[in-house]
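Summary of Year 1 activities. Much of the first year was spent building the evaluation harness for sequence design. The harness presents a backbone, in tokenized form, and records the residue chosen at every position. We chose the following record to illustrate the format because it has been used consistently in internal testing since the harness was completed.
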């Protein structure tokens, strides 16, 4: 009989704990713009570091000293491998950014991770619009005399670019959401102990 009373007390404690957690969620849950912003900053920093590491690895393996004829022959392979590595680097970066956003905010980790991703998208759109409005006056690349030529048909290049864009958008969004969920798990562990 004493054993049954202990179970009743434990279930009552659990119910009170869950009710308290729901009240906390109602008051402090939802989108946290600060967590999402700092998650985006982490994603941006990680992306810069990871692409720098990939560039250094490419230079160390001799991809920068390839002759034009060799580049033309292996352009497809180099492009696919480079695209996959860039996609993986961006996904890792946005997973880390989502994790930070989810960890900073007690509730709704997936939403915080998505917010970190959305900051990057919104800023990219704003910069693209500013570039279109301001024109070529501030386009540094157009003022350089050297412009690389890609040995690929422009139609194939456009289709490949669209596929890469969709893969990057979907991949980084999912990585940021999963990172946010992973960051939120820490708080759930603390709740289980409490």
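For this record, the design step produced the sequence shown next.
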């Amino acid at each position: 009989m004493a054993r049954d009373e202990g179970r009743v007390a434990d279930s009552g404690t659990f119910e009170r704990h869950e009710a308290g957690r729901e009240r906390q969620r109602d008051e402090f849950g939802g989108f946290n713009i600060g967590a999402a912003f700092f998650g985006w900053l982490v994603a941006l920093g990680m992306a810069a570091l990871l692409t720098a590491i990939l560039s250094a690895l490419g230079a160390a393996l001799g991809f920068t000293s390839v002759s034009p004829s060799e580049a033309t022959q292996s352009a497809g392979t180099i492009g696919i491998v480079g695209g996959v590595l860039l996609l993986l680097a961006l996904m890792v970066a946005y997973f880390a950014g989502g994790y930070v956003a989810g960890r900073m905010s007690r509730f709704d980790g997936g939403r915080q991770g998505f917010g970190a991703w959305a900051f990057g998208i919104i800023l990219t759109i704003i910069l693209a619009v500013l570039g279109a409005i301001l024109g070529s006056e501030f386009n540094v690349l157009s003022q350089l005399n050297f412009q690389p030529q890609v040995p690929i048909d422009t139609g194939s290049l456009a289709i490949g670019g669209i596929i890469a864009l969709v893969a990057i958008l979907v991949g980084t969004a999912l990585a940021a959401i999963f990172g946010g969920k992973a960051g939120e798990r820490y708080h759930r562990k603390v709740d289980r102990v409490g």
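The helical segments are 2-28, 33-60, 68-73, 75-104, 109-134, 154-193. Quantitative recovery figures across the full test set are reported in Table 2.
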